[in-house]
Every structure is written in structure tokens, then in C-alpha cells.
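Researcher: Go.
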Amino acid sequence: MAPVTTEPELETLRTQIDDLDARILGLIAQRVGVVMQIAEYKLSRGLPVYDAERETRLINRLCELRPPPLDAETVRRIYERLIDESRRLEQRHLTRSAAARERRRG
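Model: Structure:
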């Protein structure tokens, strides 16, 4: 099988995608960090962690803000997944935090 070669222009475009993906990943990590802070805040004040209305408002707002060439369904699907994964990480964080607090109490 012959090695795959690409044109310089294609490589340049792929490098741009790689750079954007690295930036997006960093922003997602920052977003999840803030999600964890919100979870701790809510937990310390006895507030419910899950807020379906907030999620709906957030997604609707982002669908309205979407720049071309994104369509509303794409934005909705991306953010539903991002929120689901954030919630999974948040739950894991809260479970670990609760276990750590229990260990400290003895």
C-alpha cells in the first residue's frame, strides 16, 4: 500500500483544525471547571444541582446566537452532549468530594 501524501494546502487546513481543536479543548476544560464550582456552591447551600430550565434556556439562547454555517439543530446537539458530559463529570466530582468529607470526619 502506497503512503498517503497530501498537498501542502490540505496540510495547512488540517493544522488549522488541530489548532482550533486544542483551543476548544482548553475552553471545554475551563467550562467544566466552572461547572464544578457551581456544583460545590449549590451543594454547600442545599440547592438542587440539576436545573432543567437553566439548561433549556442556555441551549435556546445559543441556538439563537449561532453563527453561520451552524444550524440550530447542530448547536442543540453539541450542547446537549457537552451538558450531559459535564453533568457526568460533576456527579463524579461531587461523589469524590462527599467521600473525602466523610473520611475527614472519621
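Model: The chain has a mean pLDDT of 92.
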